[in-house]
């Protein structure tokens, strides 16, 4: 069943005349480079150069009511994910089938079991979360959750720069009065504040924060902005960056399980890598991850937080009665139920068989999602039916979930990409809103819980994937509007 597209209004009249468009594209491109809204070039990698991160020239409209709803929901979601991460029985039951067929999730789960059986050394966890939403035109333009990220929730550093650039662009085009509808965004300060609070809780002012990073970092500006913001907020807090390979070579545990990187005592470990199989090509990387989990350092995320963010757990939380296990207030439970779209298990049982049949009958209605982060892994449209037929009778299907497809409204805008000309085409785009949260605590008590900022990623309406770092999406800012 195809739906007629629903278009949101534009904040300014489009198309922009060519001469004016060329001028503002060049200005905004220079603004992006000079303010660090940039990434390294994947194809021609050099540590000495960056290029603009793809961005949307004019901020995209977003329903104010739904934006405010997402902001208000974040502390509830923080609480939910914190309690889920600390429920060993629930995680084990959720992932029982998946770990048999998904080697990566299975290896994470082995670490989880190991540290649980040995006794957890550090009971405090730090969660820097991001809950992603799309507006769904099928449900009266209400937001529906796409996913929640519990590891390497990125783009806060670039998003606050996009917010500033959007203000600049609107002002330059003569629509500065619209800037009152661009919400304030303190995502970077908020996330870095969470890292510093965890560092203070650890209680050793000589210890450092460790960033676990890739061998080759494309999204360098976003990562470094976190490091530099920590320095700005707390100059005495040292940050070190190491890959899992480097950690495997030089890390050790002290007499009280202190994590030592050479001679540097580590208070907090912040993973910006380690969320996908490619980060663990050998046993060394897995050994490094286990060493970190065994240590006294506060992890962001701890292994149980990492597992709590899997798609399988997300699907399990959408089952009837699941939220009641973790939240006591009916109001909170109903608020979260409202943002869930249809999520279905593909286990070998009556419900899994029903989901398989639904996917075969109406593949266009669904998205197939595996246990992967980072974009580019989902299956859409006619390919859903093909994939479902291939794994219908295979245990592999239990590593996936089936999700009802969201139908977002469309905007008209210009995507500015590195290497493109001065006159980008006016195209149809759709947006995904991310809300950041910080939560710190142990299994008994939550010490810190707040919403700290937002991001907006936008892509061609014809595109399925939308990751900016993966090259599919573009940075954007939400311009809030009141829909009738």
Topology:
Elements: H1 18-34, E1 38-39, E2 51-52, E3 55-56, E4 60-63, H2 64-85, H3 88-95, H4 98-101, H5 103-118, E5 125-136, E6 142-149, H6 156-172, H7 187-202, E7 208-212, H8 220-233, E8 238-242, H9 244-250, E9 251-253, E10 259-261, E11 264-271, H10 283-294, E12 298-300, H11 303-308, H12 311-317, H13 330-339, E13 343-345, H14 350-361, E14 366-370, E15 379-380, H15 382-391, E16 400-404, E17 411-416, E18 426-441, E19 446-460, E20 474-476, E21 478-481
Parallel strand pairs: 4-21, 7-8, 7-11, 11-12
Antiparallel strand pairs: 1-2, 3-17, 5-6, 5-18, 9-10, 10-11, 13-16, 14-15, 14-16, 17-18, 18-19, 19-20
Helix pairs in contact: 1-6, 5-10, 7-8, 9-10, 14-15
